[in-house]
Amino acid sequence: MKKFIKQFQKNSNLARLNLIIKLLIAFSGIAFTIMHFINPVIWHRLSSYLVTIILPFVPDLIAKINLHTSTKLRLAYSLFLVIAMVFGIDLAWYKNLIIFGYPSYDKIAHTLSGVFSAFLAKEILDNVYEGKDSTVKSSSTSRTSEIKVKKYSTAFAFLFIVSFVFFIAAAWECFEFSYDQLCGGNMQELNAPGVSDTMGDIISAGISGTICAFFLRKK
Q1: Is 14 in the same domain as 107?
Q2: Is residue 94 within 8 Å of residue 88, measured between CB atoms?
Q3: pLDDT value at position 146?
Q4: Using CA atoms, how far apart are residues 128 and 122, in angstroms rounded to an integer?
Q5: At residue 138, does pLDDT exceed 80?
Q6: 151-162 pLDDT tens trace
């Protein structure tokens, strides 16, 4: 415990906040699981509760294979888990949050997912893309230092980010469909005419992601 506290104190404020949110998400999954065994009629999403316990630590598992992500992106991931998993699925806000007579939480979550996907794409671009190295000067109150950054076309960056956002949106729809079929959920409105719900979700994420891509396209 002392080692954990010392490590916690050494972390930055963002890293501490991310760790607290991660633990709260995991503990909420544990609490929901316990309530399932107390009252399985009301708390009947056992598989979702178990997934909620695991998902917060996915970035840590990915880091084990030398795929590191920034603290800001990890924090954004944790916040998205709160929105999508804890509130959306575990507490059934996808179905129960009604705005103007329509269950709107799904579109809210997908719109925010577009923002998260855009930042994820930007991070992948900065860390994986082997473009030309460029040196920029960073000045502070005490001294001036040089920082090496990747230089790439803003048009390419915009296209990559937008494409990635739409890819993640489509992949999320596949997850929703699989979850509904395997776990008896209702993430997709299967009674909606045609594929309006699926396309609406992808378009919502695409619009927000495209707006973010416009601002993120420059290094």
Answers
A1: no
A2: yes
A3: 56
A4: 10
A5: no
A6: 678 888 899 999
* CB proximity list for 146: less than 8 A, separation 6 or greater: 135, 136, 137, 138
What SS3 class is residue 190? coil
The structural domain count of the chain equals 2
Question: How far apart are alpha carbons 6 and 133 in whole angstroms?
Answer: 37
Residues comprising the chain, all counted: 219
C-alpha 165/C-alpha 157 separation (Å) is 12
Q: Which domain holds residue 26?
A: 1-91
For residues 99 and 74, state if they share a domain: no
pTM given for the model: 0.73
Cα maximum dimension of the chain: 63
Residues 217 and 174 in one domain: yes
Tell me how far apart the alpha carbons of residues 38 and 153 are, in angstroms, rounded to a whole number.
57
For 62-101, the pLDDT digits (tens) are: 888 877 788 888 888 999 899 888 998 899 887 777 776 6
Could you tell me which residue, 89 or 53, shows the higher pLDDT? 53
Do 160 and 170 lie in a common domain?
A: yes
Q: Which residues of 102-124 are buried (b: 16+ CB within 10 A; e: fewer)?
A: ebebbbbbbbbbbbbbbbbbbbb
Q: Which residue has the higher pLDDT, 151 or 40?
A: 40
